[in-house]
């Protein structure tokens, strides 16, 4: 059984069987990134000889914590199958392929985005798959490159192919690079079995290289959801975090219904909140618990979101019984 564990304020606080870890996400502030070797050493000490794919995500802050980093892990009994490619390791557990985050400091924005997708493709080949196996991508870029962001469309079209299944996707703006010179960092998840795109009839996705959600077996990997009307493609509820969250949560449930699922099937939420909305975030708690009563929630403050009017973007994962 796969479990999403709540984020903790350090590797020393992990309460898991280390050999069961299939993925690690490190949410790190600028202060923690100033000396990444400290976090590397803490990870090595905690994991010992166990190798797991690691995603390092720069953030402005971690909601509910005043520490410089938070550690979130996914576990599966036995730790799945490890596959090594150079310095990277991937793990395959219950048909899900967990990858490390990738980035480069070489080239301009589009070059770096293309390199990242090509690296993900190489890691998937190690598992006997191609980019058609992707179920989710999350890219982290900076507000300074927001105007350039549409340039990632071409490498996505060329490397992800024509579909009909494309991964769920999210784009988050973080102004502290994961490494000097890196303009983009890319996270991805794949799956080994047949995939099904889930779309409640929203035509805007017909021309995009991502879908509202992808089902892989019993798992459903949804895209990032903001308060966007899928018909008019306009942001709604400007300046009102609670109203935006309510709209986002209803949209998620609309997509889940395509697979016969509900909010009760959501096991994990990552919520990216803008700095101006962070103080209001506790006001969304009761609403979120009504929609997703069994979800483990990780909430962080990003620098901004791709739509300047967005105050929150939510990335959910659901599992069918």
From TrEMBL:
Q: In which domain of life is the source organism classified? A: Bacteria
**Where would one find coiled-coil regions in this protein?**
none
Task: Give the InterPro entries listed for this entry.
Answer: RutC-like_sf (IPR035959), YjgF/YER057c/UK114 (IPR006175)
Q: What is this protein called?
A: Enamine deaminase RidA (YjgF/YER057c/UK114 family)
State the organism named in the record.
Actinoplanes italicus
């Amino acid at each position: 059984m796969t479990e999403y564990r709540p984020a903790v304020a350090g590797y020393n606080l992990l309460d898991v069987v280390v050999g069961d870890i299939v993925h690690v996400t490190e949410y790190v502030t600028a202060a923690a990134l100033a000396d990444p070797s400290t976090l590397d050493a803490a990870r090595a000490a905690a994991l010992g000889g166990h190798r797991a794919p690691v995603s390092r995500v720069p953030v402005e802050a971690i909601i509910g914590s005043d520490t410089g980093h938070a550690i979130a892990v996914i576990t599966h009994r036995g730790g799945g199958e490890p596959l090594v490619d150079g310095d990277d390791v991937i793990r395959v557990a219950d048909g899900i392929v967990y990858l490390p985050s990738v980035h480069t400091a070489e080239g301009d924005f589009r070059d770096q985005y293309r390199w990242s997708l090509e690296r993900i493709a190489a890691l998937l080949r190690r598992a006997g798959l191609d980019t058609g196996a992707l179920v989710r991508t999350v890219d982290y870029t900076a507000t300074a490159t927001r105007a350039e962001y549409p340039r990632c469309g071409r490498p996505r079209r060329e490397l992800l192919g024509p579909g009909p299944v494309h991964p769920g996707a999210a784009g988050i703006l973080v102004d502290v690079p994961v490494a000097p010179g890196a303009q983009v960092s890319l996270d991805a998840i794949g799956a080994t079995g047949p995939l099904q795109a889930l779309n409640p009839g929203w035509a805007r996705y017909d021309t995009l290289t991502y879908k509202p959600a992808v089902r892989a077996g019993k798992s459903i990997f949804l895209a990032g959801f903001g308060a966007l009307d899928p018909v008019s493609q306009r942001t709604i509820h400007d300046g009102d975090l609670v109203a935006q969250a309510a709209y986002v949560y209803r949209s998620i449930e609309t997509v889940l219904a395509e697979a016969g699922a509900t909010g009760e099937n959501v096991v994990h939420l990552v919520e990216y909140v803008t700095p101006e909305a962070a103080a209001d975030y506790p006001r969304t708690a009761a609403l979120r618990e009504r929609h997703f009563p069994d979800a483990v929630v990780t909430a962080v403050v990003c620098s901004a979101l791709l739509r300047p009017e967005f105050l929150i973007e939510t990335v959910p994962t659901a599992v069918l019984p």
